[in-house]
Write a structure and sequence with these properties.
Largest sheet: 5 strands, mixed
Distance between the termini: 185 Å
Radius of gyration: 59 Å
């Protein structure tokens, strides 16, 4: 018969240690360190806040010379239909530059006829210059040889009317038929006979009081010569 096994006295067991892998131990250490930092924060020095300084903005570059600059339409303008610009009335200067003046006449010149100086020279000189200007249709030069009375009456007309009156004088003096004016002779104190080509033209020139040519239709009756002749006058009332 077998003998009973003697019983051992009871010994308290030591608790088993949990064996953790190395990775778990490292993670545990990191979590513990983080907990310590959150519970006991270290004071940190505050840094001054830096405000960025404003940068200067460059001015917009002008358009290149080759790029056309398109003007901006007015707010009320319709695209494709720009508003019409009203034309300004022409000034006296514009009228002078727009087209050649008839025979050198301009509105300013006609208005100042009465302020022109008296024609210089003798009655024969004045008559010769007057007919020579008429022959070339230089109305301004012809008007400058007229007396103050005649120039004053013409100064209230426009250039076209003055040109019409002087052209009428030219037609009575021979028109396109008379040639260059050369010889002159005094036939009475107020009349000069001028030879123009083959024609003899009588010009009434006042030399005693107000020097200058007078073209009224009343003068031919008193300026009579024996030879066949024409008179430099107009039927148009001044």
């Amino acid at each position: 018969m077998s003998q009973p096994r003697p019983s051992r006295p009871h010994e308290p067991r030591s608790p088993r240690r949990l064996q953790l892998p190395a990775a778990a131990l490292a993670l545990t250490a990191l979590l513990g360190a983080a907990a310590c930092d959150s519970t006991d924060p270290q004071p940190t020095a505050s840094l001054p806040m830096l405000t960025p300084s404003p940068q200067p903005q460059a001015a917009p570059a002008p358009p290149a010379a080759s790029e056309p600059v398109t003007p901006q339409a007015a707010p009320h303008a319709v695209a494709g239909n720009p508003p019409a610009v009203p034309a300004l009335p022409p000034t006296a200067t514009d009228l002078t530059l727009a087209a050649p003046a008839p025979g050198g006449l301009t509105p300013q010149y006609v208005a100042s006829l009465a302020q022109l100086p008296e024609p210089a020279g003798t009655a024969q000189d004045i008559a010769l210059r007057f007919l020579s200007a008429l022959r070339e249709r230089q109305w301004a030069d012809a008007a400058a040889q007229m007396s103050l009375y005649s120039r004053d009456r013409l100064s209230y007309r426009d250039p076209a009317q003055v040109a019409t009156i002087l052209n009428d004088v030219r037609q009575h003096a021979g028109g396109d038929a008379f040639g260059a004016c050369t010889g002159t002779r005094q036939i009475n104190p107020s009349a000069v006979a001028v030879t123009c080509g083959r024609q003899l033209v009588v010009v009434h020139v006042e030399s005693r009081f107000v020097p200058g040519v007078q073209i009224d239709s009343a003068h031919p009756d008193g300026d009579v010569v024996a030879e066949s002749h024409l008179h430099a006058y107009t039927d148009i009332e001044l």
